[in-house]
Amino acid sequence: MPVKEAICTGYVPNFQAFLRHPRDVNEPVELDGPSALGHAVKDRHLASRLLASSADLNAGVEYDIPLSRAALIGGVEMIEMLLPHGDDVNRGQVLHWVLERREDTCEVLTMLLKRGASPNELEFEEKSSKSYFEHGADADKKDTSGETGRVMAAELGLDHILTIDDVTEEENHTKPTQTLGINLAFVGQAHKAGARVLIADLQLTPEAEQLVKTSSGKIAFTQCDVSNWSNLKSLPSEVTKAFGPDAVADIWIAGAGVFEPKWSSWLGDTEEAHYKQISINTEHPMKLTRIAMRSCLGANKPGVCLIVASGAGITGAYGCPVYCASKHACVGFTKSMAQADRDEGFKVVCILPGMVSTPLWTGQEAQDVHKQFSFTENVCITAEEVAEGMMEMVTQGKYGGGSLMEIRKGDLRNVLESREAYRVDEGSSPEMKAWVDECYRPIREVFKKERGVKKSGANGVH
Q1: Which of 28, 276, 384, 437 could form a disulfide with 264 if both were Cys (CB 3.0 to 4.6 A apart)?
Q2: Residue among 367, 352, 282, 284 nearest 322 (CA)
């Protein structure tokens, strides 16, 4: 139909003629299809014009309305613009349409659920079951195959298991503190979202101890020195001890870090063999990522490793050169691991907080750096704000492998450029593709051998 084609292609003269035509703007423009607005959901200008002309977001046949088409192909910003104009998010089977999206599925689904779409109006789906349950879905409702959402969630591992190292962020890495750190804030948010969590640290703070005690077995603790690789290699086994023989962590957080302590600083120069600050800040995230990948590949499941770096990972600071170098390395490592997401379904991402009011700055052992860098609360973000960014990165598909998020005062979601030295895409030449394939071949061969070998991968020798 010319009207439909004019709207879909955004041809303004025909579109204006359609608006001037003496007909109901909410009539379907094709048999059993939506009204004109349903064909304009990819063009903000045309959609706005139609809404101004009294277009109804809920007009059309029962299963195919403009909101249905927006749920299928509309951008997130477009859907945000349209939703205030619709009075019934349960008409048009919108949640069914959302599940056919190619991107931003969970984000759009959550948006509609928050607007009141009933999570019990459709069968459960692997990529979005967690959102259903968080918004009141009946976990005991059966789908068309007779399975309940509760059973399906358990089979799919949607009650995520997280391994988080170091919740104290104490400056000397040995003493607990009573100030909430970034990782402990993340533990709280992950637990609230329904995840099971293993905390790996030297010892727990009083707040962390209380969280473990009141978690009904959903949060466990194991002692771990992240600079000791034997401790790190034991973590997959510690997960099974805490949560059962078949438990495999699918989200890993490399959160331990120290900030230019006197016992490991470039200026102090007291160490004889190496900078332990590098072992903690740099080597441990790299090693943990390798352990995490082997664990997830062995269980043949996707996974995520988030590395907590710092804004110092993209800038230099004369006052803390080893710390800056350690965080630059984390950023470079994360960029280099982008291909693992495309090849193996394991994504490595990195968050770069600015100054945060945590024990790193406020602890007893941090008094010298507190004074040196003129620490003040009014330039800080909170641990909770950083934890929210971490939750976004590990749960939302828009943050692919290699993603970097800077989070600082006044700019809580600054996604940084993450360039790879070489990447094959649709425009790459056959010669380039062949060269990259050969470059990646040894890596892919190793991961192929590790995939599905649970005995030596997920819970065995690392």
Answers
A1: 276
A2: 282
DSSP annotation string for 220-233: EEEE--TT-HHHHH
- The rounded distance, in Å, linking the Cα atoms of 276 and 272 is 10
- The alpha helices in 147-306, defined as continuous H runs, are 149-156, 182-192, 206-213, 229-233, 235-243, 276-278, 284-298
Task: Enumerate residues 6+ apart whose C-beta is below 8 A from 5.
Answer: 11
Three-state secondary structure call for residue 334: helix
Q: Please give the average pLDDT of every successive group of 10 residues along the chain, which has 462 residues.
A: 53 54 69 75 79 80 79 84 78 76 75 73 45 46 47 43 60 33 90 92 89 93 94 95 93 91 89 94 96 95 94 89 95 96 95 78 62 67 90 91 89 81 81 91 95 62 48
CATH class label, 161-450: alpha beta
Report the CATH number of the 2-117 domain: 1.25.40.20
Q: Token pair of 276, please? A: 């332990």
Nearest to 245, CA basis, from 254, 253, 256, 236? 236
Q: Is 43 helix (H, G, I), strand (E, B) or coil?
A: coil
Strand, coil or helix: 355: coil
User: What's the gap between Cα 355 and its chain centre?
Assistant: 22
